Amino acid sequence: MSVAFPRIALVHALRLSIDPIMASFAADWPEARLMNLLDDSLSRDLERDGRLTPAMTERFLTLGRYAHGTGAAGILFTCSAFGPCIEAVKAALPIPVLKPNEAMIEEALGAGPRIGLVASFRPTFPSMRPEFEEAAAARGMRLSLVESFAEGAMEAQAAGRREEAMERIAEAAARCRDCDAVVLAQFSLAFAHEASAEASGRPVYTTPDAAVRRMRGLLAA
Predict the structure, then answer these.
(1) Beta carbons of 165 and 156 less than 8 angstroms apart
(2) How far is CA 220 from CA 23, 27, 30, 70, 94, in A?
(3) For the chain, how many structural domains are there in total?
(4) Residue 178 contacts by C-beta under 8 Å, 6 or more apart in sequence?
(5) How far is the C-alpha of 208 from the C-alpha of 206, rounded, in Å?
């Protein structure tokens, strides 16, 4: 008798986020049935507006409701810059909805309170800061967050200049040598894990593998 595996909806605001999460599912949970929803105007509109607006939240709710309507058992958003919008989807739907970084944040804080946060998309910083602060407060930790922007990495990666992108991400990680751990804040940065660890000399945490583990655990429960 065949076994029905759950459908997981992956919602992306950047094309670069798709390959890393697909690779993590292939390695850690190949049986999951995946669907991909991409709206890359979300990231452009956030850069234009400079903040998350009620209209942006409504767009996320529309995406979440659509995914739920297809029969998805869980939804994983893969862009780190939209935390409050994803929280609204969590509150609206009766299925597990994951922000991209919540599992990774818990793992990183296990290394200590001083965290280097590397991103190539600037709006990621103001979105992720409250997530780290809330998780640290729950642990009774006094958080010290060092933000390090990988200038030009996203553009280089989008243009296919993978080595250049890796170098820029590693340079940003190297500025976090005094931290307890380094976090690569976007799914699209996961490929630079080893280079970032070598450059920083610190433990480096990435998002896709932790997110897959968390979603699998939630649905198993």
Answers:
(1) yes
(2) 21, 18, 15, 20, 16
(3) 2
(4) 114, 146
(5) 6
Q: Rounded to two decimals, what is the model's pTM?
A: 0.82
Alpha helices in 37-148 (DSSP H): 41-49, 54-69, 83-92, 102-109, 124-139
Higher pLDDT, residue 146 or 127: 146
Q: Give me the domain span that covers residue 166.
A: 102-207
Same domain, 87 and 154: no
Residue 2 lies in a domain: no
Residue 29 CA: distances (Å) to CA of 63, 87, 108, 215, 216: 24, 25, 22, 10, 8
- Based on the domain organization, do 36 and 95 belong to the same domain? yes
Nearest to 183 by CA among 141, 123, 129: 129
Alpha carbon distance, N-terminus to C-terminus of the chain: 23
Rounded Cα gap, residues 89 and 83, in angstroms:
10
Cα separation, 83 vs 207, whole angstroms: 14
Same domain, 54 and 132: no
More confident residue, 4 or 167: 167
